[in-house]
């Protein structure tokens, strides 16, 4: 990847009615940026309704009371530094391997029971198949289109300490089987992932963290290479199984250290499995990376020239605490601008030279916006609706928030659901044993610590909903 030469994208704006403060698009590799003027008017205003204008009851009223109370407990801890910081230290301590019986979350029943009924249930789908199936059913009953499910194994590379953390990285457990090396880590990952596929159905997504397959895979990714043949076979098996069940696959973006290898293998999978006019496989693009416009441009070119659908899942990026900071946009605002630029560019079918007048044709793209940023997702939904209503070209789009986070954003989107079935909203969850999920829980807690204003908003919204239910209970009983 030409990281060193990646030029900072600057964006040019098309008028848009609702927010975001920035509407943006790419122009070749030479980007120019202009902010949307607050009073700019949309060419489409007459035919559309602002999503915010729709009168609604509290979005959180859809939340079952037990979930609401647990969410309030977690939001209370997350929004108060004097509660969150000690909780983070405890979680981080428990994450360390080889804990004594007393401190082993899988072996100490009291510790297990407490963590399971609080943090684990808030953010994770279950330890057993039945628990996971129940969680998915609950998502669908609440109006979500489906679930995005991950098996909780991954490796995180800390750029500062140059150390890898996670399961399956202690040592190689390779065996020689009939002349070829058989890696037990890849096999364990394959089994866990196949089990996950079997829990999913049409409308659900499988999300995979490829580093969870252990050292042989992470070594290849570090070198920017494809993983070993055993892993490629496992991926083929998983893609075929998913295709048969109508389940789509999202390959998660991970630590930058592994990213070039992950991008390489995902592009191969998209080439092979996205040939039926839709994306079976999605790659994840991290908007916070300065290099992402170049990466995306390369993938759009491949998709346009070779005729496969590009699965474009867009996130801001979750590894800011461990990745090399110089690779990431200098400010949050730059990351926001980059995110909105790609999301809106895809919805307008205009990214860089693709889709532009006298440019290259815009390829087939399926978009997935994974974000808790309400302004970004509402702006994207409005733009999508506007374009659908006046029959302007656009791309299919889905939205996702993480299980246990930003329910207010999820339910606000669900309240906008129209007769066409849009917006399609998903909850993304992780399953696995409590011990396996601790690193994931720790990352969620750190994310909450870093999103102070959002966690504060969430806490106030949840508290208001609890208050509303208490008041209606009192007025009902009097
Ligand atoms: C369904 C789902 C799937 C996800 N999958 C992945 C994945 O595969 N890979 C992955 O990396 N992440 C993933 N994430 C996490 C995501 O990348 C973000 O960390 C998280 O969602 C917060 O970003 P946001 O869009 O919700 O918005 P916000 O909360 O508005 O943005 C916070 C984000 O902005 C960026 N940021 C914050 N401060 C700065 C700064 N000073 N300079 C530059 N940028 C800054 C960071 O990316 C931070 O996470 C996923 C999130 C969701 C909801």
TrEMBL record:
Keyword Disulfide bond: no
Sequence ranges assigned to domain Proline dehydrogenase in this UniProt record: 135-455
Catalytic activity: L-proline + a quinone = (S)-1-pyrroline-5-carboxylate + a quinol + H(+)
InterPro entries named among the record's database cross-references: FAD-linked_oxidoreductase-like, Proline_DH_dom, Proline_oxidase
Keywords: FAD, Flavoprotein, Oxidoreductase, Proline metabolism
EC assignment: 1.5.5.2
Needed cofactors: FAD
GO CC terms: mitochondrion
Pfam families named in the record: Pro_dh
Record carries keyword Flavoprotein: yes
A GO term, aspect molecular function: FAD binding
GO BP annotations, alphabetical order: L-proline catabolic process to L-glutamate
Cited function: Converts proline to delta-1-pyrroline-5-carboxylate.
Entry similarity comment: Belongs to the proline oxidase family.
Name of the protein: Proline dehydrogenase
């Amino acid at each position: 990847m030409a990281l060193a030469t990646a030029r900072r994208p600057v964006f040019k704006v098309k008028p848009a009615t609702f927010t975001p403060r920035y509407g943006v698009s790419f122009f070749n590799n030479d980007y120019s940026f202009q902010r949307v003027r607050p009073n700019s008017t949309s060419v489409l205003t007459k035919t559309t309704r602002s999503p915010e204008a729709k009168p609604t009851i509290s979005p959180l009223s859809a939340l079952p009371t037990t979930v609401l109370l647990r969410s309030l407990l977690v939001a209370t801890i997350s929004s108060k530094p004097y509660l969150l910081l000690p909780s983070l230290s405890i979680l981080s301590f428990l994450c360390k391997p080889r804990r004594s019986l007393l401190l082993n979350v899988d072996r100490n029943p009291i510790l297990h029971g407490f963590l399971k009924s609080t943090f684990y249930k808030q953010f994770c789908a279950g330890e057993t198949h039945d628990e996971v199936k129940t969680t998915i059913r609950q998502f669908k009953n609440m109006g979500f289109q489906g679930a995005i499910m991950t098996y909780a194994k991954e490796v995180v590379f800390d750029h500062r300490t140059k150390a890898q953390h996670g399961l399956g990285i202690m040592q190689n457990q390779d065996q020689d089987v009939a002349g070829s090396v058989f890696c037990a880590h890849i096999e364990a990952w394959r089994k866990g992932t196949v089990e996950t596929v079997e829990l999913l159905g049409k409308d659900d997504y499988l999300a995979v963290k490829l580093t969870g397959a252990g050292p042989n895979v992470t070594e290849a990714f570090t070198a920017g290479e494809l993983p070993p043949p055993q892993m490629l076979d496992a991926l083929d098996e998983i893609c075929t199984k998913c295709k048969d069940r109508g389940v789509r696959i999202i390959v998660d973006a991970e630590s930058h250290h592994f990213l070039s290898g992950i991008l390489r293998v995902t592009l191969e999978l998209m080439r092979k499995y996205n040939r039926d006019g839709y994306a079976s496989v999605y790659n994840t693009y991290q908007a916070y990376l300065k290099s992402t416009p170049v990466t995306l441009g390369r993938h759009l070119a491949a998709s346009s020239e070779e005729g496969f659908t590009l699965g474009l899942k867009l996130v801001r990026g979750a590894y800011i605490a461990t990745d090399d900071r110089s690779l990431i946009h200098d400010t949050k605002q730059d990351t926001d601008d980059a995110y909105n630029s790609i999301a809106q560019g895809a919805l307008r079918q205009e990214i860089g030279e693709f889709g532009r007048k006298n440019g290259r044709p815009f390829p087939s793209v399926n978009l997935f916006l994974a974000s808790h940023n309400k302004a970004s997702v509402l702006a994207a939904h409005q733009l999508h609706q506007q374009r659908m209503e006046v029959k302007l070209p656009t791309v299919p789009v889905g939205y996702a928030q993480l299980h246990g986070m930003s329910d207010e954003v999820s339910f606000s989107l669900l309240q906008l659901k129209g007769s066409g079935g849009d917006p399609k909203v998903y909850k993304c969850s992780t399953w696995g044993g409590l011990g396996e999920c601790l690193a994931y829980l720790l990352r969620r807690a750190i994310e909450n610590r870093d999103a102070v204003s959002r966690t504060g908003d969430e806490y106030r919204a949840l508290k208001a909903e609890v208050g509303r239910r208490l008041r209606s209970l009192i007025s009902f009983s009097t």
